[in-house]
Design a protein that fits this description.
Blueprint (H helix, E strand, L loop, with lengths): L1 H14 L5 H18 L13 E2 L12 E8 L3 E11 L3 E11 L2 H4 L3 H18 L7 E7 L3 E5 L2 E4 L16 H8 L5 E7 L1 H12 L5 E5 L3 E5 L14 E2 L12 H9 L10
């Protein structure tokens, strides 16, 4: 029957994606070796896994409280959030959020247009929530590979996914955001990757959480690293950034993607 025929076709494709235990162990060994290289001063430039520091030194300890704003840019939609952290005998986190589209004219435009759009969305959110006259500390989740020199500063290395905004690469994205927000009542205190935000959020439920992973439009992860393992003139933690790690188990589709979309390899894992 047509249904069985279609299932046979799917099964034939999936068969090639079944990796043996030996291949998975090989992937693990090579991946770990590249992570170690990424933490070393001399080997870092040639490491396939770039261990980018985030300057986040710990997960929440339960003493945090206050009202905050957050911006989340990096997927198919842009999100603005208001977060209230309070202590009612135990840590209590309440969130209100609003999604905004990221049309092609924004994701393929220039940097000024992008950050002005972000500022306009924030203004709309604050108007809707009747908080436009209040001043809030603001966190910026920016889901693209950046070299951070401080918790609140980060230079964009490369756009990934479908973003192709001109004039932003090799610049400090927080500075661009602050310029766009200069008329808004918000003070940018932190720039984080979405994986870091995931780990920090999970940390409220379990303080043993030291890993965050995103599997979505792209994939990425972060973890807490011990200082004694880091031989970089930078601070504590890293999120992985894959760029061409040679691994067993690549399929025809993997090789085609790498060949035709090399500049997007930052988001690939194997």
């Amino acid at each position: 029957s047509p249904k069985l025929c279609a299932q046979d076709t799917v099964d034939r494709f999936l068969y090639h994606m079944r990796l043996s235990d030996d291949i998975l162990l090989d992937v693990m060994t090579r991946f770990q070796a590249e992570m170690v290289k990424g933490l070393e001063r001399d080997a870092h430039p040639t490491a396939a896994v770039k261990m980018l520091p985030t300057f986040v030194r710990s997960i929440p300890d339960g003493s945090e409280k206050g009202d905050f704003l957050a911006l989340d840019l990096g997927g198919s939609k842009f999100r603005v959030l208001k977060v209230k952290v309070s202590e009612d005998g135990k840590q209590n986190v309440q969130m209100e959020s609003q999604f905004y589209p990221t049309p092609k004219e924004i994701t393929h435009g220039n940097g000024t247009e992008l950050f002005d759009y972000v500022a306009d969305c924030l203004a709309d959110f604050m108007e809707t929530k009747n908080i436009k006259h209040k001043k809030f500390p603001l966190g910026f989740t920016f889901s693209f590979p950046c070299i951070q020199t401080k918790l609140e500063e980060g230079v964009l290395l490369s756009w990934t996914k479908y973003f192709k905004v001109r004039g932003v690469q090799e610049t400090d994205v927080t500075s661009s955001l602050r310029h766009a927000l200069r008329k808004r009542k918000a003070n940018v205190l932190a720039l984080v990757n979405d994986t870091v935000g995931t780990m920090m959020t999970c940390g409220y439920d379990d303080q043993r959480c030291e890993v965050g992973i995103i599997i979505g439009t792209g994939t990425n992860a972060c973890y807490m690293e011990e200082m004694r393992h880091i031989d970089l003139p930078l601070e504590m933690m890293g999120h992985w950034m894959i760029s061409g790690l040679s691994l067993t188990g690549r399929l025809t589709w993997d090789l085609s993607i790498l060949e035709n979309n090399c500049k997007y390899c930052f988001s690939f894992t194997y």
